[in-house]
Amino acid sequence: MSTFxxxxxxxxxxxxxxxxxxxxxxxxxSITAEVSYLVLVEAPREPEQQKSEWSAVxxxxxxxxxxxxxxNITWNASLFLKTSPSIRGVFLGGEGVGQGWxxxxxxETHTPPRCSHCYDCNVCVLRRDHHCVFFGQxxxxxxxxxxxxxxxxxWAGLLYAVVMNAEVFxxxxxxxxxLHSVMLLIVPWxxxxxxxVTARAFAFAxxxxxxVIGFLLVAAFLFFHVGLMLRGQTTRxxxxxxRPYSLGLLGNVRECLGQRWYLCWxxxxxxxxxxxxxxxxxxxxxxEPAGSTASL
Length: 296
Fold this sequence. Notes:
about 5% strand; protein-cysteine S-palmitoyltransferase activity; PFA4/ZDH16/20/ERF2-like; membrane
C-alpha cells in the first residue's frame, strides 16, 4: 500500500512540476497565433490599404519580427532546460577546498563558493541563483545566459503583443466605459460562462489581458535580474546585500553572458564561452555580511 502511495505521489509531483511548463507553452503559442491573426487578417483595417503593395511588406516584416522573437524564446528555453547547472559530472577538486567552501550532507561532498543545494532538483547547483518554477529547473552558472535571453525576448514579444492588441482594447471600449466592457476586460471568463459575450470576443479579451499581465510580470523579473547581473550578485547574495564577487560593470556582464556578451543575446546559436568554471571566483569584497564580524 505504501509503495502504491509513493508511486502515485511521485507521478503527481512530476505532473505538478510539468504543469507550469505546459501552461507557459500554451499561452505563448496562443498569443503567437492571435497576433498572427491580427497581422494577417485584421490589419490594416482599411480595405484600400489591404490591397496595396505596402500592406504585403508590412505584414511580412511583422511576421518576421514575431517569429524571430518566438524562435529565440523557444530555443533559449530549450537550451536552458538541456544545460544542467548542477555539480553532476563536474570535478570539484577536493584538494582545493578553501574559504567559502561548504560540505553538503545530502550530496555528501564539499561544494565551492556560491554553490548551494536545491531541494527541488535534489542536487547542489554551481553559482545557484534560484529555482525557477516556470521552467522546473535551477538557474545557475551554465544556463544563466539562456534564462536571461529568454526573459529578454519574452519581454520584447509581450510588449509587441500589447501594442498589437491595443486595437482590441479600442474596439471593446468603443461603446464607452460601461459595466459590460469593464467586465469583459477584467473577468472575461465570467462573461463567457454567463453567455454575455461570444467565444471569439472572449478569446481576444482573454489573450489581450494575458499579454498585459504577462508583460508586467516578465518586465519585473527581467529588470531585477539585469540589475543583479550588473552588480555581480545572485538572488541569494542580494538578500544579504553582499557583493564580494563584483568585477565591475563589464566584468560582471562577461561572467554571466560569456566572452561574446555583446552578440550572444541576438541568438542562442552564437557561441559565447564563459570566462570561469563556476567553482573558483575572484573575491573583491568581504564574504560575510556587514556587521557579522563585529558581532563575533
